[in-house]
Known about the structure:
The protein is an alpha/beta fold. It is 34% helix and 23% strand. The chain contains 10 helices and 13 strands. α9 packs parallel to α10.
Amino acid sequence: MNNPIRIGTRGSKLALWQANWTKSFLEKKFASTPIELTIIKTQGDKILDVPLAKVGGKGLFVKEIEDALLTGRIDIAVHSMKDMPADIPAGLCIGAIPERENPVDVFISRTGAGFTKMPAGSVIGTSSLRRGAQLRHARPDIVIQPIRGNLDTRLKKLESENFDALVLAAAGVQRLNLEHKITEYLDATVMLPAIGQGALCVEIRTDDPTVGPMVAAMNHASTHAVVSGERAFLKRLEGGCQVPIAGHGTISNNTFTLTGLVADVDGSQVVKGQKSGPIASSETIGIDLAEELLARGADKILEQLKTIANEGYES
């Protein structure tokens, strides 16, 4: 093959790490195929002074890249799975979900104090309604301050602005070799992760006869099953950046278990549940768990949140 395969990616350090990891994997597997990176700036990268929930949510980090994929400018798109909306545009599909990195969140404080040891009134920066709601639920005495920017930008703001601590995804911190900055890994009982957190999404055009089989070699079956269950949960709840929704799936003893959560923004109301079943039924389990939470009051929380989605909260 003479024509290069073009991988589309955002230009942040973390996005480039993810794209280069994908490129390296494919080059080792298909040594005769030239592979190139194409950096694409998304609306999420351009709009840094407005909360994401106010301007469209996390789809802002993928739309331009998906447009480039649909028009043939690129052949593969690499995203953080947690940035992916529940619905994929017609003509595109998830070609592979590689093995997942650590899905949990981490706490990084300026003093080295853990989350439970932070003084009342401490200012914690987070870019996520999901994180903010769970932090407030566990510690109503702290202050949540929205923060925007790439991972490295947020870490710099911890030092330069009025933050006492940050909460970030462990996967991104680890991929950039910044583990030494982690104060503690937050247990899922305190901070349930985002849907798909720690996993990559390798998106391609549907039925691409060349790229499809290449990308399929990257797929990790159990990760794919787990993330598919989480995303089915998200899709049934019609969730996005404007809603504090969390979901974390695991596999143990050939059984898939999904824990899910819906909360209001201030963390005063939290509806949480868990369902288990066969791995092959992960998507059905995700839908069933969503239905259970809706019946237990999540529907009222979601309805309330629709009215405040544009009031300045960020994802």
